[in-house]
Amino acid sequence: MTIRVGTTQRRSTLIGLLAATLLLVCPTSAQADTGLPMIAVVWPLAWLLLIPVCVVEALIAKRVLALPLVQCAKLSLVANAWSTLVGIPLTWLVLALIEIAGGVAISVSGARPGSNWIILAPLGAPWLGPDIRPWHVPAAAAFLCIPFMFVSIQVERWSAAKRVSHQKARRWAYIANLATYLPIIAFLTALAISERCRAP
What we know:
Helices cover about 75% and strands about 0% of the residues. The chain has 8 helices and 2 strands, in the order αβαααααβαα. A two-stranded antiparallel ribbon has the order 1-2.
């Protein structure tokens, strides 16, 4: 079945890809104190994890939707491709804009990397500041996975609803994304804690 993409969705996809591409192709040596845009870390990793995630979510689709495995694999691949291609960069872009808007509050608080960083991490996770500690990257990635998961649920539900009923699509999207995102979040959290404990 061919998925028709509307003009608005095409524009959203183009904007997301353009924003991510600009961030990835910008020379890193331009400014040493610009920090780290986390899209440069999480988006390539999302593409690397695409096939394993699709396999897990296809097996869940077979159980939840009671469809042949080949159909479940196609459904999972298409839904996750949309989620990775559009959902992640657009969600990051929105979060980065929120972070920029909240920059004044962070400046006023006088926050510095350390124990109080964890309080501001959800706001500062999209784009880490210049004083990055090793544990900040997995911690920020873990925080970002939470909004990514909720957006993925909606994107994959929308994609799956083209093949199955809305109720089944919603149920599969929730179960599948919880099954794939929660272990990733747990791993990143454990990695961040481990790095933080080893830090001097």
